[in-house]
Specification:
214 residues, alpha/beta, Rossmann fold, seven-stranded parallel beta sheet, 8 helices, 7 strands, globular
Length: 214
């Protein structure tokens, strides 16, 4: 795994500043249209973002095994554009020869340095939230809607409420889902709870485990 990590770090340096920004204020339909025009099977990864992974190396090893099942020249890897959490799969995908794309809310422009250097194409979606369901509704926000609708195959590694909402919608639409239970980073989760004035987490597992982890 050390060799894999070295390759990932090398790719991060090589791709710094090379993102192709598809659009800064896109609708879900515009983003999906762009992704589809690539003419490839869309393999989308879902999981934790800012919370990160307790065992990131283990997650990457499993992700490598998943990616090895697909032909790079015929597959487009899509994630949420940032490099944190599940975004660690981006440089891994690049080491294996995959084209990559990211779909993310315009809210991410507040922290542009978080965008992964290993994303070939970035679609910024006009959205007042970061994903998940719209308030008092079962409809997905524009960002989550674009993520699900562009996906042919959904691959989940744990993940919070937004990922769960997206994978449930993918399941509803009859799209194949491959899911791996994974714990969020314990220290990060505890710090977040303290910051929000909440008690320590009772569990570090994903809410999606109960639905997809069986």
């Amino acid at each position: 795994m050390n060799t894999l990590r070295q390759l990932i770090n090398r790719i991060k340096l090589q791709w710094r500043g090379k993102n192709h920004i598809v659009g800064w204020n896109m609708s879900p339909e515009e983003a999906v249209s762009f992704i589809r025009r690539r003419g490839k099977v869309v393999l989308t990864f879902y999981g934790y973002s800012g919370m990160g992974y307790e065992d990131e190396e283990g997650m990457l090893k499993l992700a490598q095994e998943v990616l090895a099942q697909y032909r790079p020249e015929k597959t487009l890897v899509v994630i949420g554009a940032t490099g944190v959490g599940i975004g660690a799969v981006y440089p891994l995908a690049k080491t294996m020869g995959f084209e990559t794309a990211g779909i993310v809310t315009t809210g991410a422009l507040k922290n542009p340095e978080a965008i992964s250097n290993a994303v070939d194409h970035v679609c910024f979606i006009k959205d007042s939230q970061y994903g998940g369901k719209l308030p008092n509704s079962d409809d997905l926000s524009p960002t989550s809607k674009a993520m699900v609708e562009c996906s042919d195959i959904l691959v989940g590694f744990g993940g919070g409420g937004i990922s769960q909402d997206e994978m449930l919608e993918g399941k509803k639409q009859g799209k194949p889902i491959q899911y791996f239970p994974a714990e969020m980073n314990h220290e990060t989760a505890i710090r977040y709870a303290q910051k929000m004035g909440l008690p320590p987490p009772e569990s570090f597992s994903a809410p999606a485990d109960d639905v997809f982890g069986k």
